Amino acid sequence: MLKLSRLTDYAAVVMAQIARYPEQAHAATELAEAVQLPHPTVSKTLKMLVRAGLLESRRGSLGGYRLARPATLITASDIIGAIEGPVAMTECSHADGDCDLVATCGVADNWQRVSLAIRTLLDSVTLAHLAQESPLKLPVQLPIQSVTLASRAEI
Amino acid sequence: MLKLSRLTDYAAVVMAQIARYPEQAHAATELAEAVQLPHPTVSKTLKMLVRAGLLESRRGSLGGYRLARPATLITASDIIGAIEGPVAMTECSHADGDCDLVATCGVADNWQRVSLAIRTLLDSVTLAHLAQESPLKLPVQLPIQSVTLASRAEI
DNA sequence: TCTATTGAGGACCATTTTAGTCCCCTATCG
DNA sequence: CGATAGGGGACTAAAATGGTCCTCAATAGA
Ligand code: SF4
Ligand code: SF4
């Protein structure tokens, strides 16, 4: 399905929630309630987001979480990367990807391009976009510039 | 990581292999050898691809697999869909998606759009593209048309 | 200073998904 | 007929995922 993990989804939801009131600090408990998710789980994702540098935290009373930078500078890639690691469709399309087949499978190169395209797409979607309530605005619109295949006939 | 399952990757590799010699039938054993993967595994993915209507099979001696339609008409989405089900980033972005949070999480709508964008992107990549040996051709190029945010300042 | 609050870190377990194997049946060709 | 393919599906092992919990550290304010 090429699906986000559930935690990643939670992360996005929580980030969006914070993004809607960027000024104030949000306690984990408060967020968990707002989003209707169990507190420990929310807490876990928050910690991950902090470690990835997307959130800043403050302990103690009056503490909580807030965005590390403006919502317009946080991308979907960032959020996904924070939870599941850098976006990459295949083993071979990220840094320490080591697939035995690189030599024989003729598709590595092209998958990497597709992967890159998706990454770019996700880079262009910011938290501000995601958090936006107003639904009907077609945030991301293709067309993707189509490909010119040299020898389509031959294949 | 937003990664393809390994089987999906295999499927792509195998499909590409077939696509390079579309005329002849390919036995599972032959393919397994060409791709350097265990036979049972390859066989499994082949069966899935048949069930999804991307390959046609013929039993008996001289049997084997061949493409059900030209490589230019088989998309990456098709292949992914055949193995892991339809492309959808979040629970809510495919048909029988039932997520309890739809009401409270303010991001469902926007994720669905992103999901759609990716699906469209993958629809535009054909097996012919993937199978192509020649590497350096930037098969898919963004730009994606960027978004106009109504009230960026306010967020 | 003391205490209540709130996050950090990490161990831990249950469940699900994924990957891979195997066996037995059916179709086709010669 | 018999040799060569694929079809279906059960089954297992291993890994990823989701979720919980407990203890420690920082901060604010009485
Ligand atoms: S594309 Fe080829 S090399 Fe890259 S991961 Fe898949 S099989 Fe390995
Ligand atoms: S986006 Fe909102 S509704 Fe869609 S799956 Fe994630 S949480 Fe559920």
From TrEMBL, chains A, B:
> Organism, per UniProt?
Chromohalobacter sarecensis
Task: Name the NCBIfam families on file.
Answer: rrf2_super, suf_reg_Xantho
Q: Which InterPro entries match?
A: ArsR-like_HTH (IPR011991), SUF_FeS_clus_asmbl_reg (IPR014290), TR_Rrf2-type_CS (IPR030489), Tscrpt_reg_Rrf2 (IPR000944), WH-like_DNA-bd_sf (IPR036388), WH_DNA-bd_sf (IPR036390)
Show the CDD domains listed in the entry: HTH_ARSR
- Lineage, uppermost ranks: Bacteria, Pseudomonadati, Pseudomonadota, Gammaproteobacteria, Oceanospirillales
Q: What Pfam families does the annotation carry?
A: Rrf2 (PF02082)
This protein's name: SUF system Fe-S cluster assembly regulator
Question: Which Gene3D superfamilies does the UniProt entry name for this protein?
Answer: Winged helix-like DNA-binding domain superfamily/Winged helix DNA-binding domain (1.10.10.10)
